[in-house]
Amino acid sequence: MNLRTALTASAVALAFTGSALAGPAPAQSAPVQREQVGNRISENIPAIPDALREQLNRYQNTRGAGFAGWTREGCLLIETRFAETSQAHRVCEPMGMREQLTFYSEPVAGLAVAPAASTLDGFVFSKDKGGDEFSQLHWFDLATRQTRLLTDGKRTQNGGALFSRDGRQMAYAGTARNGTDRDVYVRDVASGQARMVVSEGGSWSPMDFSPDGKRLLVMKYVSAAESYPGVVDLATGKLELFPVDGGKAAFGGFAFAPDGKSVYFVSDEPVQGQAQEFQTLRFHDPASNRFEVLTRDIPWDVDNFNVAHDGRHLAFVTNEDGISKLHVLALPSHREVKLPALPVGVIGGFDFSPDGKRLALSLNSATSPSDVYVVDLAGAKLARWTRSEVGGLDASTFVAPTLVRYPTFDQVDGAPRSIPAFYYRPAHVPAGRKLPVVISIHGGPESQALPTFNPTAQFLVRELGVAVLVPNVRGSSGYGKSYLALDNADKREDSVKDIGALLDWIARQPELDASRVGVQGGSYGGYMVLASLMHYSDRIRAGVDLVGISDFTTFLTNTESYRRDLRRAEYGDERTPQMKEVFARISPALHPQRIASRLFVAQGKNDPRVPYTEAEQIVKAVRGNGQPVWYLLFDDEGHGFKKKSNADYYGAATVLFWQQNLLGGTE
C-alpha cells in the first residue's frame, strides 16, 4: 500500500462570490459558444478537425497492462482496457490470451485475490459511479463467474481490501460510520458479517494480518510526512500504537515477518538519534530488540515491499532519481538474491506467486506502456507475460527523456538549489530551428513526475515538434523529506518560483523558443498552471488546467469532509487568520486580472477531490476580466477522465488548443 496516495473525496456545492472579481471594472466578455453532446459540455471549444482526430487515433489507442495478483492455479490477474474502461483480465502463460473477466461501463480497481490457502477462488474489486470515488467492494467468483456486493452500496468510500493468510477474514477501510473518518473493518468471509476494529478518528488503513490471523497491523495517515502505525488484537479489539522515534515520521509499508512476531516496515524515523532524509526498509524484533536498517546504503526512498507467502523471500523497490530498482532478499538472512537484468523503467504492483518461487511485476518506461513480467527466482530468469499495444506505431522511434537539473532562486550550502526535470526533445531538429515548449506539472503536490509512457507527450514531441519539460518542483516526493516540506503552508508560492526559474532556463537554451511556452497540469498541477499564469503571463503563452484548485479557501471548504484535514495538513488551515491571508494572496480565482494568457479549463462534474465549482469560478473570473477561456465539463467523470471516449476528446481539444495558441501566431 502506498501511504502517499491522496485520499478521495466528494464534491459539495459552492456558490461563487463576487470577491473573485475585485479590482478594475472587467472588460466586456465575448459571447460564450456552448455545446452539449451527451455527458459533455464544451464552451468556446472549436470543432475538432477530422484530420486531427485521425492523426491522434493511433496514439489514443495505446494501452498498458498492470499486475494485480496471482490466482491459485498460477495465472496472473491484470488490469487493462480493451474497450471504454479498464477491467480485470486473466493471463495464464507468458504472452498468453487475455481473458476479460469484468465488463462494466465504470473502471474497476483495487483488485485483491483470495489467497491460495483459502476455500475461496476469486478476487475483490472496487468500483464507483461516474468518478465520484465512493467506491464499493465487490466479490468476483472465478468458479461461477458471479459477482456480489460486499459493502453498503451507499455514499461511502471503501477500499484497501486485504485477506488473512487463510482467507477467512478480509480487512478494509471505510467511511460508513460518519462519512468523515476512515475506519478499519474486518469481515468474516464465511458469514459475511463485518465488524469495526478501528474507530479512533482520522484516516486509517489495514496493513497486514499476522500469520495466525489474530492480529492486524494498521496505520493512521496524517500527511506525507506523518503516519502512526499500530496493531489490533482482533479477539479483544485493543489497539496498541507503536512508539514513533522523533515523535513524527513518515511510514510506508508495514508487514509481519514470517515468525508472526517481528516486523518489516518503511520509515524515515531517526536512526540512533540521527535524522533521516529518505524512507528506508527496516526490520524490528520486539522480543530481542533486534533492529536493522536493511537499505542503509541506498540514499533513496523505498517505495514498497512484499513478503513471499512461503516466508522465504522479501522483495522491495527503490526509487532512484525516478527510476525503479528491484531487490529481493532471502529470509531470514537478509542476503541479496541475484536477479536477472530488468528493462530500465518504473515498477508498479508486484508480488510473489503462491508457492513463492516467482515474482510478478508491472514495468513501465517512457517508451513503452506498462507490461507484466515474471522473475523466476531460482534460475534468475525474466519472462514477459504481456505485450501491450502501441496503436500500430513504431515504438523504436518513441522519445526517451533526459534528466536535467536547473538552478532556482534559493541556495543550499552556498550554491543555487537545483530542480530536476525530465526533458523530451524532438529528434532530427533542423539547425537553427527553435522549439516551442510545453511544461507539464504533476499533481499531489506530494507526488513525483516519473519517466513513464505518455502518448500525449509522444504526440507533441514526434508529430508537432514540441519540446516537453516535466519538472519535479519543491514539494515533490522522492528527493528526501526536507525537499518535500519546502512548499508547505505559507511557502506555497516557492514552488511557483521554481517554474519561473525553469522559464529562465528555457531562455538560456539555444534550441528552445522562450516566446512560445505553454504550461499544463492536473489537480494540484492545475493550481500550478493557474498560479504560473498569474505570475508569468508575460512569459507563458497558454495554459491547460485539468481539475485544478483555483481558490484554496473554497477548495478546503468544499472538498469532502473525510479528506479535508488531510489537505489542511499540506496546504494550511483556511480557518486561521494567517492562512486566510496567504490563500487570499495566492489563489488565482481572486486575481483574474493577472491572467493574460490563453486558458483551457477541463473538469469532471463528479470530482470528489477538487469540486467542479473550482473550475467554474476560475472560468467565470477570467472571462469577467475580458479573457477568452475554453471550458470542458463531463457529467460522468470525476478527478480526471477514466472513460476512453472522454479522454480522447479532451486530448484532441488540448492539441487543438496548443495548435491555435502556442504553435501559431498570437491571436
Automatic annotation (TrEMBL):
InterPro entries recorded: 6-blade_b-propeller_TolB-like, AB_hydrolase_fold, Peptidase_S9_cat, Peptidase_S9A, WD40
Species assigned in the record: Agrilutibacter solisilvae
Any single biological process term in GO: proteolysis
Protein name (database record): S9 family peptidase
Domain Peptidase S9 prolyl oligopeptidase catalytic, first and last residues per copy: 453-664
Matching Pfam families: PD40, Peptidase_S9
Organism superkingdom: Bacteria
Keyword annotations from UniProtKB, A to Z: Hydrolase, Protease, Serine protease, Signal
Residues in the signal sequence: 1-22
GO molecular function, one term: serine-type endopeptidase activity
